Amino acid sequence: MGVLMSRRQTVERVQKVSLAVSAFKDGLREQPSTRRRAEAGTARQGTLEQEVEEGEEEALAGPSQPEESSASKAAWERLRDGRGVEPEEFDRAKRFTPPAFIRPKRELHDDEPLDISLEQREQILNDEMCEICEVWTAESLFPCRICHRVYHDGCLRRMGYLQKDSAMEVTETAHTETGWSCYYCDNLNLLLTEEEMYSLMETLRNCKIIPESCLTQDDFLHYKHQVHKQQFEQTMPKAQEEQATLQFNALDPDKKGHIEWQDFLSHESIQLLQKIRSQNALLRLLTAKERERARTAFLALDQDHDGFIGEGECRQARHTWFRKHQKEMQSCNVSISHVGPISEGSPASSRNGKSPEKILPATKQEETSRSIDWPGFLRENVAYILAARPNSAALHLQPLA
Question: What 8-state DSSP symbol labels residue 321?
Answer without folding.
Answer: T
